[in-house]
Amino acid sequence: MDESRALSPDIAALDDELVAGLAGLELALPEPQRRQLLAYLALLKRWSSAYNLTAVLEPQKMVARHLLDSLSLVPWISGRSITDAGTGAGLPGIPLAVALPERQFTLIDGSGKKIRFLRQVRRSLDLDNVEARQARLETLGDSPAPDQITARALAPLARLVHWHRDWLDQGAELLAMKSRGVEKELSELPPDYNVALHDLKVPSVEAYRCLAIVTKDKDQKVSKKVTQA
């Protein structure tokens, strides 16, 4: 079954909107991957009727706020292994895994129902580069460190650093998607971390979006360095 057909009677129009949005991000994906992305939205919409996975269910808004917002991270994904912390319904992990099939994504959430949904997504979309794992983030320190950690509107930066301190100390990089108010969060970070801020321009999304990239300061300096890119 083509899951994407459940999304809209005019799937071609949604695909056109996705293509235009990708162009705005200076990205291009072939039709099979775009079909996977729209099938993911269809599954998300269908499962949300019972599982309350997202409040955004209008198809055009889902393209912008779920797919394009997540894919705005693509230029900063450089590692081979990426952990999506507190993934929820699979954002940004699933769109990134579709767009970057050569990289391995581990999607972590404490909710069993969300992990069941993500395992269904993995099967339906044939995403061999995705693993969905139910766990609490503060218990993951003994697991092998990924190259990068993504987090979308999950928690303040200081809490994210606390949860992932062991991995950051081993060289992992935290990519935290943020909105307004991130400046206050910077002042609450421990001093031995570097932060680079990047504005994210997401087509059809008016709200301010930015990316905070956090790394451990190997020089152990007494004050953190904050750069605006």
Fold topology:
Elements: H1 11-24, H2 31-51, H3 59-71, E1 81-85, H4 93-99, E2 104-109, H5 112-125, E3 130-134, E4 148-152, H6 157-163, H7 165-169, E5 173-178, H8 182-187, E6 193-200, E7 209-216, E8 226-228
Parallel strand pairs: 1-2, 1-4, 2-3, 4-5, 6-8
Antiparallel strand pairs: 5-7, 6-7
Structure description:
With 229 residues, the protein is α/β, with parallel strands linked by helices. The chain has one domain: Rossmann fold (3-Layer(aba) Sandwich). The chain contains 8 helices and 8 strands; from the N terminus they run αααβαβαββααβαβββ. It has helices at 11-24, 31-51, 59-71, 93-99, 112-125, 157-163, 165-169, 182-187; strands at 81-85, 104-109, 130-134, 148-152, 173-178, 193-200, 209-216, 226-228. It has an 8-stranded mixed β-sheet, with helices on both faces. β2, α5 (112-125) and β3 (130-134) form a beta-alpha-beta unit. The chain is globular, with a radius of gyration of 17 Å. The model is unreliable at 221-225 (pLDDT under 50).
The number of helical segments is 8
The CATH topology label is Rossmann fold
Number of domains: 1
Strand content: 15-25%
Strand numbers in spatial order across the main sheet? 3-2-1-4-5-7-6-8
Computed structural class: alpha/beta
From the alpha-carbon coordinates, what is the Rg to the nearest angstrom? Answer: 17 Å
Shape type: globular
In the CATH classification, which architecture applies? Answer: 3-Layer(aba) Sandwich
At the first level of CATH, what is the class? Alpha Beta
Mean of the pLDDT scores? 90
Quaternary structure? single chain
Percentage of residues in helical conformation = 25-40%
Distance between the termini: 44 Å
The tally of beta strands, per DSSP, is 8
